[in-house]
Amino acid sequence: MDSELNSAWAVDRCVIFESLSLDSSCFSSPPVNFLQELPSYRSIARKRTTILSRDKQNGTLLKPTDSYNFQLEGEITEDLDNQSIRKYALNISEKRRLRDIQETQMKYLSEWDQWKRYSSKSWKRFIEKAREMTTHLELWREDIRSIEGKFGTGIQSYFSFLRFLVLLNLVIFLIIFMVVLLPVLLTRYKITNSSFILIPSKDVDIQCTVYPISSSGLIYFYSYVIDLLSGTGFLEDTYLFYGHYTIDGVKFQNFIYDLPLAYLLSTIAYLALSLVWIVKRSVEGFKINLIRSEEHFQSYCNKIFAGWDFCITNRSMADLKHSSLRYELRADLEEERIRQKIAERTSEETIRIYSLRLFLNCIVLAVLAACFYAIYRATIFSQEHMKKEIDKMVFGENLLILYLPSIVITLANFITPIIFAKIIHYEDYSPGFEIRLTILRCVFMRLATICVLVFTLGSKITSCDSYLCDLCGYNQKLYPCWETQVGQEMYKLMIFDLIIILAVTLFVDFPRKILVTYCSSWKLFQCWGEQEFAIPDNVLGIVYGQTICWIGAFFSPLLPAIATLKFIIIFYVKEISLLYTCRPSPRQFRASNSNFFFLLVLLIGLCLAIIPLTISMARIPSSKACGPFTNFNTTWEVVPKTVSTFPNSLQTLVYGITSEAFAVPFFMIICLIMFYFIALAGAHKRVVVQLREQLNLESRDKRYLIQKLTEAQRDLRNRLD
């Protein structure tokens, strides 16, 4: 038993120091006697004693050395067949020896296997070269690398996230353009031999088809500016908004293009694409965060020994990184102090702190309710007064009424984070949890304001208090084409958000930088300081704009193109602001943590955007005066109508897939798959725990060996003396 344990322990030690080596001397080297006292050896001895006793009872006893040799050789042979040698963490001589083994094995393969092996290598080499070429074609590659070198990976991740949104909106615009705009443009400008199909509405009162489009820009010059900022007037009946696509189909030579179905499918396509793209990118960050969910001692070690950002080349940013690491260590120690304080709390203190948190959370809910009510009242006031004649009010009054919901939303987004930051200090949380909870509240505030605006518009659209409203199914008098007017609100939010970002940069950040730089002797400006480039606040701003784009793309098909231009402008404005007017925040983010946080917030915004879109397409009656769905009660009705044109067998298949008889087994299968992956994740977690235990044993072994070496040196000196 002892000899087997000694040889097995020797194998384990050889594996650690001679990874993937085939030298047989390692397996036959006798262990040193005092090494049997190592903690790792004792742990292995206990485990193998249990395993060997169990194997003896089952009659499946196998020598550890033989089993390990067989397993190691098999793994290396398999890896040589499936992976590249450069993936091994070996020195050059070992890699050359493995390459010789590969070439020797190739001689004994058939010509077909040799051709497959060579073609696989050539294909992998081609893929690597293609990836290297595509890296040079990345958008803003040099700018982002320069920002990374000067300010670190945390701020670089923000600009990379902004680049991702530019590409996402560009792809969304291309989907809408190819599916909806291109057939209309080809027909309208006689590029192809096609014509529009206009089916007159049946069983619809003529009063519901009235759609007066105002064109007051011919009277006053400033009305052009108002139309450009609000989407009314000359912009209302353009390709920008839903009401312009009052077409039932496009007839080509060999087929009829169903524009209503294409319009709905384009919306589903860009939402599904956004969901898949975001989830795919967020999974990578989730894996890294899952790996980094280490113990507190390991967290300290990682910050001290592996916390440096080697992309930093600027001296000031290096000093900032030093202070950031000090801040993180202080925050970790503060969290440890708070955990100890929580453990030592009495029942009276616990009741007091939870009562205080309950009271403060009631204040937070009251602030949110007040903001939502203000947005609700501002939206109703704006909708009721925006139909006045343009000559009855001055330019500023008209613009204020048009942009009143946007102004209230912007003020709410500016004031509430300040209130939340003050409240969180009295709730007695750890510093890390304070940041996460404040960001979560701000995310909910920013994104919920858009939903409040949309639901307020929906309540006004469906509020029926007249005969005409009951006749058409919606408030036709105030909203003859309600989809276009919702698109105008989203358009105004998008434009106003861009105006605010530009105005803050030009009229707040730049003057503040000048005053702090050239009036530094004044104590007021010294206390004021430069504007911080806060990554979470900037991320929430662009996620807010992206959520507006997702909601508004159905009502304004060209809104993704506007969002693309907006984010391009924001990229250059933020880059100039970062380089010349702002200073990086002392609370820096890791790139992996930042990317996962950005995508998580973006995923929340996408889920909130899907809710009002689904309700508007499935519940609210479509306009009878404009748009491609004038012959349908709701937007979704185009789907069952299209299915009814399928052959009987295909209809039966579709109805079967959408029935409860298919949904219940499908749900059960999904649950089984989910349980399988949960069990697999649990097994992987246990393996991770075992590997961490092995690392701890290795560290204890090193301390033990150092202690023995020190004692041996001390004994040697005593003998010499």
Commentary on this structure:
This protein is mainly alpha-helical and 721 residues long. Helices cover 73% and strands 2% of the residues. It has 25 helices and five strands. Strands 1-2-3 form a three-stranded antiparallel β-sheet. A two-stranded parallel sheet has the order 4-5. A hairpin with a 4-residue loop joins strand 2 and strand 3. The longest helix is centred in the C-terminal third of the chain and has 61 residues. The radius of gyration is 34 Å and the shape is globular. The two termini are 42 Å apart.
Sequence-ordered SSE layout with sheet pairings:
Layout: H1 2-17, H2 25-28, H3 39-58, H4 64-82, H5 92-107, H6 111-135, H7 141-151, H8 153-188, E1 195-197, H9 222-230, E2 249-251, E3 256-257, H10 259-291, H11 296-306, H12 315-343, H13 347-385, H14 395-402, H15 404-424, H16 431-462, H17 467-472, H18 482-518, H19 523-528, E4 531-533, H20 535-555, H21 559-580, E5 582-584, H22 591-618, H23 638-644, H24 648-657, H25 660-720
Q: Classify the secondary structure makeup into a structural class.
A: mainly alpha
Share of residues in helices: over 70%
Rounded mean pLDDT is 76
Uncertain segments: 1-32, 58-82
Instruction: Determine the strand fraction and express it as a percent band.
Output: under 5%
Instruction: Please list the strands of the largest sheet in the order they lie side by side.
Output: 1-2-3
Note the total helix count. Answer: 25
